[in-house]
Specification:
Length: 279
């Protein structure tokens, strides 16, 4: 008979005796792009993540970076949105896109056995995204509605105002989007940003799963001929900040049922030698 634990007695605290941190294996694609692989032979699901130097801080207009990133997997020059969704679903794979202030990424999740079918689709969405006008208009209409809903959330309002107070509204990190910015966005803005930051920019690749030499050759065959140029637009940005002299700022939201509080200060940049230690 199994002895039941006494829930009234806290378990003994144990010190961590050893910590093993997996070191990635490094590869380099034919175009000089670094690839970092965390290999697990027992894991049949593989994640391939391409990280581009195309975050919202280098976006020429609000919403450009995030719209480009989100629409990459919508429709391409060779696939309609229906056909692309059907193809990727057939192999039990899926895409994941993400945009931050500094980077944008596209991830493929795929079973190891189907990489020969899914890596070409990953290359397709990155290299041949078409930003179809009809799809673009549908996307913008949807995002405008989402934005209107977010404007009723106090945490959303606080987060936007917080960064502008910390850095100033002209700083790459202090800019925030407004509803009317959607109407200023054109399809041509997306095409230009995609060309500059995805097709002609620089990127890195991070992989986790059962991935070895054979899989690397496959990836190199489809991704290794992409341009890999050091885009100096980040260095050209004006990073001087205009921090608010107000130590407290209050935004009144009528009929709000919650409060949101943000506290913080400007510290070291993520490239600073002490960034990770301080974090």
């Amino acid at each position: 008979m199994t002895k039941q634990p006494n829930r009234h007695i806290a378990p003994e605290i144990q010190s961590i005796k050893s910590l093993e941190i997996m070191e990635p294996k490094s590869y380099t694609l034919s175009n000089g792009v670094p690839v970092f692989v965390f290999k697990d032979k027992n894991q049949e699901l593989i994640k391939i993540k391409l990280v581009f130097e195309g975050g919202s801080s280098v976006s020429p207009k609000p919403w450009v970076a995030s719209t480009v990133n989100s629409m990459l997997t919508e429709v391409t020059k060779n696939y309609s949105s229906e056909k692309l969704a059907e193809e990727i679903d057939f192999y039990g794979a899926y895409f994941e896109t993400s945009t931050s202030r500094d980077h944008s990424s596209v991830s493929l999740y795929s079973l190891h056995n189907f990489l020969g079918n899914t890596i070409p689709l990953l290359a397709e969405v990155i290299q041949n995204a078409s930003f179809n006008q009809e799809e673009f208009e549908t996307y913008i209409a949807r995002k405008k509605q989402e934005y209107k809903v977010n404007l009723e959330r106090v945490d959303f309002i606080a987060r936007q105002k917080f960064t502008s107070l910390l850095f100033g509204e002209n700083h790459p990190y202090g800019k925030y989007s407004k509803l009317e910015d959607f109407d200023q966005l054109k399809r041509e803005d997306l095409v230009e940003f995609h060309n500059e930051h995805y097709l002609l920019g620089s990127f890195r690749v991070y992989i986790a799963g059962n991935f070895g030499e054979k899989e690397f050759d496959l990836l190199n065959n489809y991704i290794g001929d992409m341009a890999n140029q050091n885009n100096d637009i980040v260095e050209k940005q004006d990073w001087s900040h205009d921090e608010s002299k107000e130590l407290k700022n209050h935004i009144k939201k009528d009929n709000a049922v919650q409060n949101a509080i943000r506290m913080g200060f400007v510290s070291v940049h993520r490239n600073h030698v002490d960034y990770f230690g301080m974090k």
